[in-house]
Amino acid sequence: MTVSTQPSDRALARRQQVLDAAAECFRRRGFHAASMAEIAKTAGMSPGHIYNLFENKDDIIAAIVERDCEEVLQRIAAFQQEGALLQKMLGDIEQAIDDRSQVADAALQLEVLAEASRNPRLAAVVHRTEALVNEKAQALIRQSLGEQAANQLPPEEIEGRALLLGALFNGLTAMSVRHAGMAQRVPAIAPVMRRMLRVLLAP
Description:
This protein is an all-alpha fold. It is 78% helix and 0% strand. The protein has helices spanning 9-29, 36-43, 47-53, 57-80, 85-91, 93-99, 103-116, 120-145, 147-151, 155-178, 186-201. The longest helix is centred in the middle third of the chain and has 26 residues, at 120-145. It is globular and about 55 Å long. The mean pLDDT is 91.
């Protein structure tokens, strides 16, 4: 008889419950100030149950980074299914800007980056997930450009375009902390972002 090593749906749901609770605590209190007891209380379970799922807070924040990476990869894959990829991205730009300009998300992202700057283990997770996103972003750019136009560019330029694409959207997240009322600035930002996307994604 073969014994499955895959976690059950219930275990996966409990894991997501912990990650959601931890993300809320990290946003509100910061990585170091948020205790496992606080995360457990927010998740509605005992600390012992959390330790059955995660070894420590480092494991939890690494899992949050990996989950966020998977969500980005899924969004890229969804765009790649579109026939008119560039037009779809341009049409969705207001929603994309609004999604990337949430202060709560910025608080968590900045907390992760700050911890990664001093925690080699977390830094390795961030670097690995960013490499995955960049690889998929390069494929997205190649698809948008078309095979002939993409093949005329050196690989370094495709990579540079992918890095800049990530910087544009990640920068919006940071700007939501630096500037109050980013939501009110979407109408002004969107046309400029469309022009920049055309430079990066159009032949």
